[in-house]
Amino acid sequence: MEPISNVNTAEIPEELKACPRWVHWKRVVRSGRPTKVPIDPKTGSPASCSNPRTWGTFEEAVERLTRGEADGIGFQLGPPYGGIDLDKCRDAETGSIETWAEDIIREVGSYTETSPSKRGVHILVKGSLPHGPRRKGCVEMYDA
Description:
By secondary structure, this protein is an alpha+beta fold. It has three helices and eight strands, in the order H-E-E-H-E-E-H-E-E-E-E. A hairpin with a 2-residue loop joins strand 7 and strand 8. The protein starts with 13 loop residues before the first helix and ends with a strand.
């Protein structure tokens, strides 16, 4: 499989780069569907979203990506960081983003990146979510 990442590391805020919450990921096909498997950038072993010992530094994750050992890099969420996932809002060919998603991106005003599918966007934010539903339509929110 070809790598699918188009990570522009220069756009990632220094505050996030300084946090040791990074993994790299590889794309695999399970049951006929592509999925992203998080990998510990220190060891190359599977990472756990709930185990910080399996995360590494930004530099370690980027090094694996640069060496072609990864399809992308990811930032692990948890206090004080959360994420907003906007699905099916971006044209993978043109990069055009639908108006409803542009409105959310503008309102939130935080670091935003194209999703690995290239058909959505991820917004990283500081904060936590109240208890309750985390998804409405094409919008999902996470804080862990």
